[in-house]
Amino acid sequence: MSDTDNVMTDRMDEAANDAADMMKALSNPGRLRILCALVAGPMTVGEIETALGASQSYVSGQLLKLRGEGLVTCTRDGRSMHYSLSDPRVRPLLERVYELFCPAG
After folding, report:
1. The predicted structure's pLDDT at residue 71
2. Average pLDDT of the chain, as a whole number
3. Nearest-angstrom CA–CA distance, 58 and 64
4. End-to-end CA distance of the chain
5. Cα–Cα nearest to 35, from 87, 75, 100, 77
6. Domain spans of the chain?
7. How far apart are alpha carbons 46 and 37 in whole angstroms?
8. Which of 42, 48, 53, 71 could form a disulfide with 84 if both were Cys (CB 3.0 to 4.6 A apart)?
9. For 3-101, CATH number?
10. Which residues does the chain have with pLDDT short of 50?
11. Confidence (pTM)
């Protein structure tokens, strides 16, 4: 195998690992629902709770995991924390998942 082939294989391996890591984060239904809610724009924990019909502790725990994965970020606005998507690859991926799995109407 040539050096060029080795470089291409290394890049493919790295890309496959990155994709697999993101898919793991998206594989949890609760985290997926949070990310889908954030496609519309930044939200507070309370707004996410309402959108999902979930408890504050559950939402906060899932947001912590999503922050750890680098998929969401938060900014403080006074006493509120606003969460938003941070990885630009997430939005098109979620939009495609929505097209495939969420019926129209």
Report:
1. 94
2. 90
3. 10
4. 53
5. 87
6. 3-101
7. 12
8. 42
9. 1.10.10.10
10. none
11. 0.83
